[in-house]
Design brief:
The chain has about 350 residues and is of the alpha+beta class. Among the domains are: about 45 residues; about 90 residues, L1 transposable element, RRM domain (Alpha-Beta Plaits), CATH 3.30.70; about 90 residues, no CATH class. Helix content is about 40%, strand content about 10%.
Length: about 350
Protein backbone atom coordinates (compact mmCIF):
# COMPACT_ATOMS: atom_id res chain seq x y z
CA UNK A 1 0.00 0.00 0.00
CA UNK A 2 1.54 3.32 -1.09
CA UNK A 3 1.58 6.54 1.00
CA UNK A 4 -0.07 9.60 -0.66
CA UNK A 5 2.06 12.65 -1.32
CA UNK A 6 0.81 15.37 1.00
CA UNK A 7 2.78 18.27 -0.57
CA UNK A 8 1.37 17.41 -3.99
CA UNK A 9 -2.27 17.92 -3.00
CA UNK A 10 -1.63 20.99 -0.65
CA UNK A 11 -3.72 24.06 -1.42
CA UNK A 12 -1.99 27.24 -2.57
CA UNK A 13 -3.25 30.65 -1.53
CA UNK A 14 -2.54 33.92 -3.30
CA UNK A 15 -0.50 36.36 -1.18
CA UNK A 16 -1.89 39.49 -2.85
CA UNK A 17 -3.55 41.72 -0.21
CA UNK A 18 -6.73 43.51 -1.08
CA UNK A 19 -6.56 47.34 -1.37
CA UNK A 20 -7.91 49.26 1.68
CA UNK A 21 -10.58 51.06 -0.35
CA UNK A 22 -12.11 47.71 -1.45
CA UNK A 23 -13.21 46.43 1.94
CA UNK A 24 -16.41 44.87 0.60
CA UNK A 25 -14.65 42.91 -2.13
CA UNK A 26 -14.79 39.20 -1.63
CA UNK A 27 -11.62 37.32 -1.26
CA UNK A 28 -11.34 34.28 -3.40
CA UNK A 29 -9.21 31.23 -2.71
CA UNK A 30 -8.03 29.90 -5.97
CA UNK A 31 -6.59 26.47 -6.27
CA UNK A 32 -5.24 24.73 -9.29
CA UNK A 33 -6.37 21.34 -8.15
CA UNK A 34 -9.12 20.01 -5.99
CA UNK A 35 -8.36 17.45 -3.40
CA UNK A 36 -10.68 14.76 -2.29
CA UNK A 37 -11.01 16.46 1.07
CA UNK A 38 -12.14 19.72 -0.40
CA UNK A 39 -14.39 18.14 -2.97
CA UNK A 40 -16.79 17.30 -0.25
CA UNK A 41 -17.18 21.02 0.76
CA UNK A 42 -20.13 22.92 -0.76
CA UNK A 43 -19.44 25.11 -3.79
CA UNK A 44 -19.43 28.96 -3.45
CA UNK A 45 -21.54 30.99 -5.82
CA UNK A 46 -20.64 34.76 -6.03
CA UNK A 47 -23.28 37.26 -7.05
CA UNK A 48 -21.74 39.95 -9.37
CA UNK A 49 -24.04 42.60 -7.96
CA UNK A 50 -22.37 42.27 -4.57
CA UNK A 51 -18.99 43.43 -5.91
CA UNK A 52 -18.47 47.21 -5.34
CA UNK A 53 -15.84 49.42 -6.90
CA UNK A 54 -13.86 52.28 -5.27
CA UNK A 55 -15.54 55.74 -5.57
CA UNK A 56 -14.12 58.27 -8.08
CA UNK A 57 -14.16 62.04 -7.44
CA UNK A 58 -16.46 64.21 -9.49
CA UNK A 59 -14.93 65.70 -12.59
CA UNK A 60 -12.37 62.92 -12.95
CA UNK A 61 -12.37 60.01 -15.28
CA UNK A 62 -11.06 56.55 -14.77
CA UNK A 63 -8.11 57.43 -16.97
CA UNK A 64 -6.73 59.56 -14.11
CA UNK A 65 -6.03 56.38 -12.17
CA UNK A 66 -3.92 54.94 -14.93
CA UNK A 67 -0.14 55.19 -14.52
CA UNK A 68 1.42 58.16 -16.28
CA UNK A 69 2.52 57.44 -19.76
CA UNK A 70 6.13 57.75 -20.72
CA UNK A 71 5.37 60.02 -23.66
CA UNK A 72 6.20 63.75 -23.26
CA UNK A 73 3.26 66.16 -22.78
CA UNK A 74 2.50 68.67 -25.52
CA UNK A 75 2.72 72.44 -24.58
CA UNK A 76 -0.61 74.26 -24.26
CA UNK A 77 -0.94 77.41 -26.32
CA UNK A 78 -3.64 80.09 -26.21
CA UNK A 79 -4.34 83.18 -28.23
CA UNK A 80 -5.42 86.55 -26.67
CA UNK A 81 -6.98 89.37 -28.61
CA UNK A 82 -6.13 93.05 -28.16
CA UNK A 83 -9.34 93.65 -26.21
CA UNK A 84 -8.45 90.86 -23.77
CA UNK A 85 -4.99 92.34 -23.21
CA UNK A 86 -6.50 95.78 -22.66
CA UNK A 87 -9.05 94.44 -20.20
CA UNK A 88 -6.39 92.55 -18.25
CA UNK A 89 -4.19 95.65 -18.15
CA UNK A 90 -7.07 97.79 -16.86
CA UNK A 91 -7.95 95.28 -14.17
CA UNK A 92 -4.32 95.11 -13.08
CA UNK A 93 -4.12 98.92 -13.08
CA UNK A 94 -7.20 99.23 -10.87
CA UNK A 95 -5.85 96.63 -8.47
CA UNK A 96 -2.51 98.40 -8.22
CA UNK A 97 -4.14 101.81 -7.78
CA UNK A 98 -6.39 100.63 -4.99
CA UNK A 99 -3.50 98.93 -3.23
CA UNK A 100 -1.23 101.98 -3.58
CA UNK A 101 -3.99 104.36 -2.44
CA UNK A 102 -4.65 102.26 0.64
CA UNK A 103 -0.94 102.13 1.51
CA UNK A 104 -0.48 105.88 1.00
CA UNK A 105 -3.58 106.74 3.01
CA UNK A 106 -2.53 104.52 5.91
CA UNK A 107 0.96 106.05 5.91
CA UNK A 108 -0.38 109.61 5.72
CA UNK A 109 -2.84 108.99 8.56
CA UNK A 110 -0.02 107.66 10.71
CA UNK A 111 2.17 110.68 9.95
CA UNK A 112 -0.73 113.07 10.62
CA UNK A 113 -1.28 111.52 14.02
CA UNK A 114 2.41 111.82 14.85
CA UNK A 115 2.48 115.44 13.65
CA UNK A 116 -0.56 116.33 15.75
CA UNK A 117 1.00 114.71 18.80
CA UNK A 118 4.28 116.58 18.31
CA UNK A 119 2.41 119.84 17.63
CA UNK A 120 0.44 119.53 20.87
CA UNK A 121 3.59 118.75 22.82
CA UNK A 122 5.37 121.70 21.21
CA UNK A 123 2.51 124.06 22.04
CA UNK A 124 2.44 122.83 25.63
CA UNK A 125 6.17 123.49 25.97
CA UNK A 126 5.69 126.98 24.52
CA UNK A 127 2.92 127.72 27.00
CA UNK A 128 5.03 126.44 29.89
CA UNK A 129 7.98 128.56 28.75
CA UNK A 130 5.72 131.60 28.46
CA UNK A 131 4.41 131.04 31.99
CA UNK A 132 7.96 130.70 33.31
CA UNK A 133 9.02 133.90 31.54
CA UNK A 134 6.00 135.77 32.91
CA UNK A 135 6.84 134.58 36.42
CA UNK A 136 10.28 136.18 36.05
CA UNK A 137 8.58 139.51 35.26
CA UNK A 138 6.35 139.57 38.35
CA UNK A 139 8.22 142.56 39.85
CA UNK A 140 8.48 144.60 36.61
CA UNK A 141 6.24 147.43 35.43
CA UNK A 142 6.06 149.49 32.23
CA UNK A 143 5.23 153.19 31.95
CA UNK A 144 4.18 154.95 28.74
CA UNK A 145 3.82 158.66 28.05
CA UNK A 146 6.60 160.26 30.12
CA UNK A 147 8.49 162.84 27.98
CA UNK A 148 11.71 161.46 26.57
CA UNK A 149 14.98 163.28 27.05
CA UNK A 150 16.73 161.47 24.21
CA UNK A 151 20.44 160.72 24.41
CA UNK A 152 20.94 163.20 27.23
CA UNK A 153 18.65 161.30 29.60
CA UNK A 154 20.56 158.97 31.92
CA UNK A 155 19.23 156.05 33.95
CA UNK A 156 19.35 158.10 37.15
CA UNK A 157 17.33 160.85 35.49
CA UNK A 158 14.75 158.26 34.34
CA UNK A 159 14.49 156.84 37.86
CA UNK A 160 13.97 160.35 39.23
CA UNK A 161 11.11 160.97 36.75
CA UNK A 162 9.49 157.65 37.68
CA UNK A 163 9.79 158.31 41.40
CA UNK A 164 8.18 161.74 41.04
CA UNK A 165 5.30 160.26 39.03
CA UNK A 166 4.57 157.38 41.39
CA UNK A 167 4.80 159.56 44.51
CA UNK A 168 2.09 161.79 43.09
CA UNK A 169 -0.40 158.87 43.17
CA UNK A 170 0.99 156.56 45.89
CA UNK A 171 1.70 158.17 49.25
CA UNK A 172 3.07 154.92 50.69
CA UNK A 173 6.03 154.75 48.32
CA UNK A 174 9.32 154.18 50.15
CA UNK A 175 12.82 155.16 48.91
CA UNK A 176 13.85 151.52 48.40
CA UNK A 177 10.71 150.41 46.55
CA UNK A 178 12.07 151.41 43.13
CA UNK A 179 15.30 149.53 42.45
CA UNK A 180 16.11 150.89 38.97
CA UNK A 181 14.49 151.96 35.72
CA UNK A 182 15.57 152.68 32.13
CA UNK A 183 14.18 153.40 28.69
CA UNK A 184 13.51 150.67 26.13
CA UNK A 185 14.77 151.04 22.58
CA UNK A 186 17.02 153.51 20.82
CA UNK A 187 16.78 157.25 21.44
CA UNK A 188 14.30 159.12 19.18
CA UNK A 189 15.66 160.98 16.17
CA UNK A 190 15.77 164.78 16.37
CA UNK A 191 15.77 167.28 13.50
CA UNK A 192 17.95 170.39 13.93
CA UNK A 193 16.71 173.40 11.99
CA UNK A 194 19.35 175.64 10.37
CA UNK A 195 17.37 178.77 11.16
CA UNK A 196 16.85 178.13 14.86
CA UNK A 197 18.04 175.76 17.52
CA UNK A 198 14.67 174.09 18.12
CA UNK A 199 14.64 170.28 18.30
CA UNK A 200 11.62 168.50 16.87
CA UNK A 201 11.14 164.92 17.99
CA UNK A 202 10.09 162.50 15.25
CA UNK A 203 9.02 159.66 17.57
CA UNK A 204 6.72 159.11 20.55
CA UNK A 205 8.37 158.80 23.97
CA UNK A 206 10.00 155.48 24.64
CA UNK A 207 8.63 153.12 27.25
CA UNK A 208 10.19 152.91 30.70
CA UNK A 209 10.63 149.58 32.42
CA UNK A 210 10.79 149.72 36.21
CA UNK A 211 12.05 147.03 38.58
CA UNK A 212 10.36 147.22 41.98
CA UNK A 213 11.22 145.78 45.35
CA UNK A 214 8.62 143.02 45.29
CA UNK A 215 5.34 142.15 43.51
CA UNK A 216 3.27 143.58 46.38
CA UNK A 217 4.64 147.08 45.69
CA UNK A 218 3.66 146.68 42.04
CA UNK A 219 0.11 145.67 42.99
CA UNK A 220 -0.23 148.69 45.25
CA UNK A 221 1.00 151.09 42.57
CA UNK A 222 -1.27 149.60 39.89
CA UNK A 223 -4.29 150.02 42.18
CA UNK A 224 -3.48 153.73 42.36
CA UNK A 225 -3.09 154.29 38.61
CA UNK A 226 -6.75 155.35 38.33
CA UNK A 227 -5.76 158.66 39.90
CA UNK A 228 -3.83 159.57 36.74
CA UNK A 229 -7.09 160.09 34.84
CA UNK A 230 -8.07 162.98 37.10
CA UNK A 231 -4.85 164.89 36.32
CA UNK A 232 -4.79 166.80 33.06
CA UNK A 233 -1.00 166.81 32.73
CA UNK A 234 -0.88 163.00 33.18
CA UNK A 235 -3.66 162.20 30.74
CA UNK A 236 -1.48 160.19 28.35
CA UNK A 237 0.61 158.41 31.00
CA UNK A 238 -0.15 154.67 31.28
CA UNK A 239 1.02 152.17 33.90
CA UNK A 240 0.83 148.47 33.03
CA UNK A 241 2.32 145.14 33.98
CA UNK A 242 5.31 143.91 32.01
CA UNK A 243 3.89 141.06 29.91
CA UNK A 244 5.57 138.59 27.59
CA UNK A 245 5.35 139.07 23.84
CA UNK A 246 2.58 136.47 23.48
CA UNK A 247 0.48 137.85 26.33
CA UNK A 248 1.06 141.43 25.26
CA UNK A 249 -0.32 140.59 21.81
CA UNK A 250 -3.39 138.92 23.35
CA UNK A 251 -3.93 141.87 25.70
CA UNK A 252 -3.84 144.28 22.74
CA UNK A 253 -6.51 142.26 20.90
CA UNK A 254 -8.68 142.10 24.00
CA UNK A 255 -8.47 145.89 24.43
CA UNK A 256 -9.62 146.31 20.84
CA UNK A 257 -12.58 144.03 21.54
CA UNK A 258 -13.47 146.25 24.48
CA UNK A 259 -13.33 149.37 22.29
CA UNK A 260 -15.74 147.73 19.84
CA UNK A 261 -18.06 146.78 22.78
CA UNK A 262 -17.70 143.09 21.99
CA UNK A 263 -16.69 142.49 25.62
CA UNK A 264 -17.46 144.48 28.72
CA UNK A 265 -14.07 144.89 30.42
CA UNK A 266 -10.50 143.57 30.58
CA UNK A 267 -7.55 143.92 32.95
CA UNK A 268 -4.42 142.08 34.08
CA UNK A 269 -3.59 140.60 37.46
CA UNK A 270 -0.23 138.95 38.25
CA UNK A 271 0.44 138.48 34.56
CA UNK A 272 -2.98 136.92 33.92
CA UNK A 273 -5.25 138.47 31.29
CA UNK A 274 -8.77 138.73 32.71
CA UNK A 275 -11.80 139.27 30.45
CA UNK A 276 -15.40 140.01 31.44
CA UNK A 277 -17.94 139.18 28.76
CA UNK A 278 -21.33 140.79 28.27
CA UNK A 279 -22.92 138.20 30.56
CA UNK A 280 -20.70 139.35 33.47
CA UNK A 281 -18.65 136.14 33.37
CA UNK A 282 -14.89 136.42 33.97
CA UNK A 283 -12.45 134.39 31.88
CA UNK A 284 -8.66 133.94 31.87
CA UNK A 285 -7.03 134.04 28.42
CA UNK A 286 -3.29 133.63 28.88
CA UNK A 287 -2.65 131.54 25.76
CA UNK A 288 -3.69 131.85 22.13
CA UNK A 289 -5.77 128.67 22.31
CA UNK A 290 -7.74 129.88 25.32
CA UNK A 291 -8.29 133.25 23.61
CA UNK A 292 -9.59 131.54 20.44
CA UNK A 293 -11.94 129.36 22.48
CA UNK A 294 -13.26 132.41 24.30
CA UNK A 295 -13.92 134.23 21.02
CA UNK A 296 -15.66 131.19 19.53
CA UNK A 297 -17.92 130.57 22.54
CA UNK A 298 -18.65 134.01 24.04
CA UNK A 299 -18.28 136.56 21.21
CA UNK A 300 -20.27 137.50 18.13
CA UNK A 301 -19.83 135.34 14.99
CA UNK A 302 -17.81 137.95 13.05
CA UNK A 303 -15.16 138.42 15.71
CA UNK A 304 -12.50 136.41 13.85
CA UNK A 305 -12.90 138.56 10.75
CA UNK A 306 -12.43 141.64 12.91
CA UNK A 307 -9.29 140.19 14.49
CA UNK A 308 -7.92 139.26 11.06
CA UNK A 309 -8.39 142.83 9.78
CA UNK A 310 -6.84 144.13 12.98
CA UNK A 311 -3.78 141.95 12.47
CA UNK A 312 -3.43 143.01 8.82
CA UNK A 313 -3.63 146.69 9.77
CA UNK A 314 -1.02 146.17 12.47
CA UNK A 315 1.34 144.54 9.95
CA UNK A 316 0.79 147.38 7.49
CA UNK A 317 1.59 150.00 10.14
CA UNK A 318 4.70 148.10 11.12
CA UNK A 319 5.79 147.95 7.48
CA UNK A 320 5.26 151.68 7.02
CA UNK A 321 7.15 152.33 10.23
CA UNK A 322 10.08 150.26 9.04
CA UNK A 323 10.13 152.04 5.67
CA UNK A 324 10.34 155.51 7.31
CA UNK A 325 13.24 154.71 9.63
CA UNK A 326 15.75 156.45 7.40
CA UNK A 327 18.47 155.53 4.93
CA UNK A 328 19.61 151.93 5.02
CA UNK A 329 23.19 150.79 4.83
CA UNK A 330 24.32 149.81 1.36
CA UNK A 331 26.53 146.91 0.50
CA UNK A 332 29.94 147.31 -1.09
CA UNK A 333 28.64 146.14 -4.48
CA UNK A 334 25.83 148.72 -4.36
CA UNK A 335 28.30 151.48 -3.51
CA UNK A 336 30.63 150.55 -6.38
CA UNK A 337 27.71 150.34 -8.81
CA UNK A 338 26.43 153.74 -7.72
CA UNK A 339 29.85 155.36 -8.12
CA UNK A 340 30.26 153.88 -11.61
CA UNK A 341 26.85 155.19 -12.66
CA UNK A 342 27.67 158.65 -11.31
CA UNK A 343 31.02 158.76 -13.13
CA UNK A 344 29.35 157.64 -16.37
CA UNK A 345 26.71 160.34 -16.03
CA UNK A 346 29.33 163.04 -15.45
CA UNK A 347 31.32 161.88 -18.50
CA UNK A 348 28.22 162.06 -20.67
CA UNK A 349 27.55 165.59 -19.51
CA UNK A 350 31.11 166.67 -20.30
CA UNK A 351 30.89 165.13 -23.78
CA UNK A 352 27.61 166.91 -24.45
CA UNK A 353 29.01 170.26 -23.38
Amino acid sequence: MSTPDINKHRLRRDSKPSPPVQESTKRFIMSSQTSPETSKSPSINVDPSVIRHAPIKAGLSSFDHLPPSKSTSQPITCTLSQSDVTRIALELKNMLHSEIDYTIKATIDQYKQEINTLSNENQKLRDDLDSLEQYGRRDLMRINGIPDGGNTETSDKTTELVTTLIKSIDRELQPGDIIRSHRIGSAPLTINSSENENHVQSKTPRQIIVRLKDPQVKKRILRCKKLLKSRRDMKYVKLNEDLTKTRNNIAYKVRQLKIEHIIKDTWTNDGKIMVKDNQEQIHVVNTQDSFDQFCANFCIPGVFDFLHRLEMNSKERHHNKESTKGPKYRTYAQSVSSSINQSATSDDRQDGS
